[in-house]
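Action item from last meeting closed. Structure (156 res):
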């Protein structure tokens, strides 16, 4: 499903990069952050992930039924979740840009931040953000600025 609603903004505590995120992806990322921080046991975490109506990221937690994971009663902290302590989970929305943004717009208006381990994060400079938002609108997207939501999605 191609997203149509996009939120964008900068997390000024981390830099002035502008991140563009489909609203449904933002909701899933916020859910993942909350589930990781609220779960007291592995069972709590499994139940939270099973109960969600997340539309974008369910494959990222579907492996919670694997046999090697602790029992439901075992205590849980978010640092125990694979990738969470390293900052790899929930995924950064900049890594997800190629899945939804038209290639020509991404190449014209975004900058890559290439990492060795995680891949390429795509962001816009503040001077290009409004131009990118307009270009996305011309392609049928609805774009709304929301620095606060972007900060939350980035897990800050």
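Sequence:
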């Amino acid at each position: 499903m191609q997203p149509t609603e996009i939120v964008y903004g900068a997390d000024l505590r981390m830099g002035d990069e502008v991140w563009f995120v489909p609203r449904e992806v933002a909701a899933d990322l916020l859910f993942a952050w909350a589930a990781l921080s609220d779960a007291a046991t592995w069972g709590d975490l499994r139940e939270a992930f099973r109960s969600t109506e997340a539309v974008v990221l369910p494959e990222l937690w579907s492996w919670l039924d694997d046999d090697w994971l602790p029992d439901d009663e075992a205590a849980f902290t978010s640092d125990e979740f694979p990738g969470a302590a390293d900052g790899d989970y929930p995924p950064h929305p900049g890594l997800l840009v190629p899945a939804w943004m038209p290639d020509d717009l991404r190449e014209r208006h975004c900058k890559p931040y290439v990492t060795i381990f995680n891949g390429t994060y795509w962001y816009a400079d503040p001077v290009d953000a409004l131009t990118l938002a307009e270009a996305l609108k011309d392609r049928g997207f609805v774009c709304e600025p929301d620095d606060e939501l972007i900060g939350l999605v980035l897990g800050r």
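Note appended to the action item: The mean pLDDT is 86.
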